[in-house]
TrEMBL record:
The chain crosses the membrane at residues 44-63. It comes from Bacteroides fluxus YIT 12057. Keywords: Membrane, Transmembrane, Transmembrane helix. This is DUF4492 domain-containing protein. The lineage of its organism: Bacteria, Pseudomonadati, Bacteroidota, Bacteroidia, Bacteroidales. It comes from the Bacteria. InterPro entries: DUF4492 (IPR027853).
């Protein structure tokens, strides 16, 4: 009885895995064909990617400088942050 249960269990799991795999592959192909046939969409996606690059890489260099020039660990970072908060609060 136990052997039959194990065989049925493996057959069902293998079937579910194949079905899930085929579903993921068919969804991937659907989106891939959609992106291949786009004309205006490609241009818009390119503009979006360029804007994201500018926002996260270029602007970060100018507006968010690295105050911790050396990587601090543990208590060093905590002390630095607390000192900066106190100094900035006192300046206001």
């Amino acid at each position: 009885m136990f052997v039959i249960y194990i065989k049925v269990f493996y057959i069902c799991n293998d079937y579910k895995f194949d079905l899930m795999k085929q579903t993921v592959i068919s969804i991937w192909r659907f989106y891939l064909e959609g992106f291949r046939s786009m004309t205006l969409g490609r241009t818009l996606w390119l503009i979006i990617l360029i804007k994201l690059f500018i926002m996260f890489f270029i602007l970060r260099l100018f507006f968010f400088p690295n105050y911790l020039n050396t990587p601090a660990v543990g208590a060093d970072k905590d002390d630095y942050v607390s000192r900066e908060l106190i100094i900035r609060a006192a300046d206001e």
